[in-house]
Amino acid sequence: MAGAPEIAASLARHYPTPFLRHYTYWKVRTDPLYPTVWELLSAAPTQLPVLDLGCGAGQLAFYLRAHGYTAPIVAIDADAVKIKVAQDIADLHPPAPRFIAADYRDLPPQSPGHVTLLDVLQYIPRTEQIQLITSLAPHIAADGGTLIIRNTLLDQTWRSRVSLVADHFARWVRWMGSPPLEYPDRQELADTLSDIGLNAKFQPLWGATPFNNYLIVATRK
Question: Which pLDDT does position 141 carry in this prediction?
């Protein structure tokens, strides 16, 4: 599953630099992440607010808007430069998502709904990964709320090694503000989600990429 070329082009053209336009276009075209998130959210009986942690330059929020998702979206990233880019073009994707430059330790008040945590955990120390996930419990609506995580998991496969190289490259070209620290362990992640009252399903989400990406969908027990 990948994004349609017309959607990819429509989203990409609003970004201010050639790098961001190319990145956004090919991210949407080749990575199954955004279509998968949209499919999960659109399956809910009602549209709930979305808290998007590690939102980057806002691609997920704008993708959801392009597909008719009108519930409030609050998107957070520690990179103030990326947040400024997203803020500058937010009004082109009404109703404008709210973008906040903040640390994951300082989550804003938010009506419970869905939470997305996409390609973030490897940049956080292992103990803080557990703390972050635990802190998300109040943000997940009891009636239909979903926590959607996409991340490389810790294992010894060739895909995991490729993911590590790619994450270091992203730091080298300054797309990411820090290098990868620790990939989450699958069992530890499952145990943590269970401890906060969530049932989790794990499945590969590689798409047309060589990366060791897994989708974790967690809902209330």
Answer: 95
Q: Which residues contact 126 (CB under 8 A, 6 or more apart)?
A: 181, 182, 184, 185, 188
User: Cα separation of 97 and 74, whole Å?
Assistant: 6
CATH of 49-220, one of 3.40.50.150, 3.30.70.20, 3.40.50.720, 3.20.20.240: 3.40.50.150
Helix axes 186-195, 126-135, angle to 10 degrees: 30
What's the helix, strand, coil split of the chain in %, to 5? 40, 20, 40
How many Å is the maximal CA-CA distance in the chain? 45
User: Residue 55 and residue 127: Cα distance in Å, rounded?
Assistant: 22
Q: Are 213 and 151 in contact (CB under 8 A)?
A: yes
Mean pLDDT by 10 residues, the chain (221 residues): 82 96 92 94 92 97 97 96 98 98 85 94 91 95 95 78 64 58 90 96 84 91 82
DSSP 137: G
Write down the pLDDT at residue 122: 87
- Please give the sequence-ordered ranges of beta strands (E in DSSP) within the chain, or none if there are none: 50-53, 73-77, 98-101, 114-118, 146-152, 198-204, 213-220
Per-residue model confidence (pLDDT) at position 129 = 94
